[in-house]
Amino acid sequence: MLSPPCKALRSQGYQFVAPDSSAAVKPCLWCKRSLRGGEKCYKHQFYGVESHRCVQMTPTLRCNHRCLFCWRSFEHEYPGERECTPDEIVGRIPDLQKRALSGYKVSPYVTAERFSEALTPKHVAISLSGEPTLYPHLPELIDLLTREGYSTFLVSNGTRPWVIRRCKPFQTYISLPAPDRDSYLRICRPEDDYWELIGESISLLGTRRSAIRITLVQGLNTFAPEKYAAILQDSGAHFVEVKGYMYLGYSRKRLGRENMPGHEEVRAFAGRIAGRCDYRITDENPGSRVVLLERNV
Ligand code: SF4
To answer: For residue 84, which of 33, 45, 88, 227 is within the disulfide window of CB 3.0 to 4.6 Å?
Structure first.
């Protein structure tokens, strides 16, 4: 029987792998827009992801952070959930994606060709919600997805570097929520002080295709570009996404509209960071308030 938290999320479009687990699939706004022939997500622009063929999922909704800027709710715990096996999760993905998108088949904006492509997804973004490294079989799940022909993006808060080390996704994302420990503790309200561990995860990024995600929250972490630059310089990461916080979802209970930087503010701050390390601005998407930095080779 689905736990009460999952029931609440079910009404928001979450498709759960099993009634006693919080592993779930939920197509994002851009997947649906792209399916209807509209705009694609900025990861299509930056990395070539086919948005309408992308599965947004998570193996668990549990998280060890309570970030102020997170769109998701923390008001729900998932007591005693069962961990699905990688086979169970990967086996259910096509059905759940089909179920989530089935209503679009009749839309005049959805061509038969795009609809059939959407039902054979090519990309899995492990970024829906929760912290995926808390799922004990994550390395095996990613290996199985790769064997099944999916390209994978792993988005993690970096608090468990020993798991990141064993994961081999197409692209690894580590979130850098603040320029220093004190603001990290204030903004992410972690279960424990994981600042050193996040640093350790970031130090792994030079040996793989990788990106660091910086979510700028006006007035909370939009200072000390030199400190961000020093962390990026040592990281060796290929890409850095400097992205503006969006006043959406449950974050509106914790922050205000004034905490949302405009694209010009995001661009200016990204420029201040790039000016202090071996990265340069190579692309941007004003609609998603994101600026891409790439490491100078
Ligand atoms: S890559 Fe992310 S934003 Fe783009 S379609 Fe997939 S889940 Fe959505």
So the answer is: 88
With cut-offs at 50, 70 and 90, classify the pLDDT of residue 79.
low
Calculate the alpha carbon distances from 261 to 120, 124, 247, 269 in Å: 37, 29, 10, 10
Q: Detail the DSSP E strand segments found in 33-74.
A: 54-58
**Measured from the CB, is residue 174 less than 6 Å from ligand 1?**
no
Running DSSP on this structure, what letter comes out for residue 124?
Answer: E
Ligand 1 centroid distance, CA of 5 (Å): 24
43 Cα to the center of ligand 1, angstroms: 7
Q: Which CATH architecture has domain 4-295?
A: Alpha-Beta Barrel (3.20)
pTM: 0.94
> What does the pLDDT read at residue 7?
77
Token pair listed for 276: 């202090």
Query: What is the rounded distance in angstroms from the CA atom of residue 228 to the CA atom of residue 274?
Result: 9
Tell me which residue has its CA closest to atom 8 in ligand 1: 28
Ligand 1 center–CA 98 separation, angstroms: 16
Q: Is 266 exposed, middle or buried (0-12, 13-18, 19+ CB in 10 A)?
A: buried
Measure CA of the first residue to CA of the last residue in the chain; give whole Å: 53
- Rounded to the nearest 10°, the torsion over CA 229, 172, 239, 184 is -30
